Structures are given as structure tokens and as C-alpha cells.
Amino acid sequence: MHGKTLAFLLAAAAVLAGVWLLPAGQRAQPGDSAAGQRLFPGLEDRLNDITRIRIDHHGTRYAVARKDGLWRLPDRGGYPARFEQVKPFLLGIALLEKMEPQTDRTERYTRLGVQPPSMDSDNLQISLYTAADRPLVSLIVGRVRHGLFAGDRDGIYVRVADQARAWLVAGNLALPQAPVDWVDRRIIHIKPKRVRRVTIAHPDGSRLVLEKPHPGAADFRLLDPPAGATLKAGVKLNVLARTLAGLKMDDVAVRADAELSGPARVSSVFETWDGLRVTAHSIDRAGGVWVWFDIDVSAPDAPDPSRLDAVRAEAAGWRARLDGWVYRIPRPRGDRLRARRASVLEPD
Predict the structure, then answer these.
(1) How far is 82 from 87, CA to CA, in rounded Å?
(2) pLDDT tens, residue order, the chain (348 aa)
(3) What span, in angstroms and rounded, lies between the C-alpha atoms of 206 and 226?
(4) Strand partners, 71
(5) How far out from the chain centre does Cα 195 lie?
(6) Is the dihedral of CA 247, 248, 250, 255 positive or negative?
(7) Where are the extended beta strands (E) located within 43-182?
């Protein structure tokens, strides 16, 4: 009997010793919710109440806000955000499930990425607000371990901003980090086979003109090249003519608020066989190439009245989408819009 009692006491002592040998961040604390519960119980039922999302990342802060039923970027002049991006983002937060308690010691936050975001950290803080800008929840999102849990759910280290305890949670979060990640990044798409002529005009009066001799021609040619001129090795004029095919933005701003005047503006005119005329105006700044558009219709040489009506409707659609905005585009596309003769021809 005494032997059994001694064995039981030794086993209990071993268990208790094991508990106290665990790091502080791994021990459940009084008041911690049990694993398996939602990180934010009841949030799923309040998603329609959310009117603003604030993101703090890399020392910057921006918001996505809902007004009159539409999500927009207030810091980008109210540019439309994609509901297809907002919905899974909010639902992902609501469905986060607690799996394991982690540290509550501030000196250990960094290894999980749950310290307050700063210029030097890759983590981010998500804050959700309801009507009248009332705070709802605020969450710091740290390291992600992809596919850690069943159902292809990630393991994500998080900390509710006003709590000391960090958690490993299960879930999937699409994490837009920059304002442009919330929008449809497509600007314009003009199929290359439609393009008849491209004219790139520089403020010093120089021009680069490419054209096709007829609609079925495979390649563009340089208009009025100097006698004996040859293209530089690797230069493909067809690539220049494809600049507006699937053009996407890296950022967006209100045209009226941007400094667009000055001697550095280049105008690139793309004319199609069916009468669409797209003028891309661009300036080159330290931050990249910014472009804005004028869209109109010119009667083609062999007009098809039914097709021309469709082109006019297309032009109106592009104007509705593009008017009032200026876009920063990837450097390679920007350089194509600003090409010169000297950049495509071998020197004399």
C-alpha cells in the first residue's frame, strides 16, 4: 500500500515539474480561452457592421472604408476596392481558431512576429471599426506556417493588440499589405492585333512612329527610318506595340492632385484598325513612371458603321474607368511608353 502511494506521489510530482519546466509562453494562464475556440467569438455575425479596415505595416498606415455600400481607398482618392478581396479577408479573421497559447512576455514577441509593427518589421496590424468609427477588434499578425493544420489551414502567430498573450491560430488570411493590393490592378487592355500605329512624341519634338502596312501583317515597322538604319540587337518593335495589352498598375492617385505638368511629359498614341485612339501621357519620377489617358475615336479608313458604334461604346467605357486617375506602372512598361528612335536604332 505504501509503495503504491509513493509511486502515485512521484508521478504527480513529475507531472507538476513538467508543467513548471515549460516556457512561460507555452503555459495556459488564468483567463486564457481554451484552444479550439474562435479568436474573436461572434465576429462572424458582425461582419456587415464593419465600415473601416485599418492596416499598419512597415511604418505606414492606410485604410479601406465602406461608404454607400461600396468599399474604397480613402488614401487614394476613394479609388474602388474589390469586394472579392474584402469579403474573404474579413471572413478569414472571423474564422481564426485558437490552437495553442504562446508567450505573454514582450521580449519574446519578436520571434513570433507579434510585436507592434514598425518600419523594421514585416508583420502587420489589422484594426476593424464599425459605424461612427467605433473600434471593434485589433489584431497583430506575425509569422505564418503554411498548411500546418488539417484542411490546409495555416498556422498563424497572432496577438490581440490590447492583450499580452500571443496565440498560434488556425486559419487562412489573405494579407494585402499595400493599398493597391485591394484593387483591380488592371488598367487597360488593347489587343496587339488591333493596333495599327503607335506614335511616341517627346517634348523636344522627336517622334518614334511604328505601324503595320495592313491588318494581316505580322510585324510592325519603323516609319521613315534614316537611310541604312538598322534595329539594335534584341529590339522588337512588336513589343512596343503591345504595351497596352494587359497593362497593370503598381499604384494610383487622383489626377487633379498629382503634379503632372512640366517638360518631361511624353505622349504615346495607340491607334487601332477599327478607330479607337488611346493616348497615354507619362512622366518619369524617382518613384517610377506615372501614366494617364485620353480616349477618343477616329473614323478608320474603311469604316464599318456597326463596328464603329461598338468602338464608341468601348471608348466611353474606358473613359468612365480611367478619367480622373493617374497610375504608376511597372518600369519596363513605362520605358516602352517613353521609347525614342535612339533607343531602337543602331547609331550612325
Answers:
(1) 9
(2) 444 444 443 344 443 333 333 343 344 444 455 788 999 999 999 999 999 999 999 999 999 999 999 999 999 999 999 999 999 999 999 999 999 999 999 999 999 999 999 999 999 999 999 999 999 999 999 999 999 999 999 999 999 999 999 999 999 998 888 999 999 999 999 999 999 999 999 999 999 999 999 988 999 999 888 777 788 877 889 999 999 999 999 999 999 988 776 668 999 999 999 999 999 999 998 778 999 999 999 876 656 777 888 999 999 999 999 999 999 999 999 999 999 988 888 876
(3) 14
(4) 66
(5) 29
(6) positive
(7) 50-57, 60-67, 70-73, 79-80, 97-101, 124-130, 134-149, 153-160, 166-171
| Alpha carbons 192 and 165: distance in angstroms, whole number | 56
Q: Which amino acid is at 72?
A: R
The residues that bridge with 278 in the sheet, in sequence order, are 270, 295
Tell the residue number behind the cell numbers 510585436, with chain if given.
115
The closest alpha carbon to 293, from 186, 187, 194, belongs to 187
Structural domain spans, the chain: 26-178, 186-344
Residues 6+ away with beta carbon under 8 Å from 251 = 76, 179, 180, 288, 327, 328
Q: Going by C-beta distance under 8 Å and a sequence separation of 6 or more, which residues neighbour residue 95?
A: 38, 44, 171
Q: Kindly report the CA angle at 175 between 170 and 181, in degrees rounded to 5?
A: 160
pTM of the full structure? 0.83
Alpha helix locations (H) across 234-330? Answer: 237-241, 305-322
- Contact indicator for 182, 173 with CB cutoff of 8 Å: no
C-alpha cell at 194: 488591333
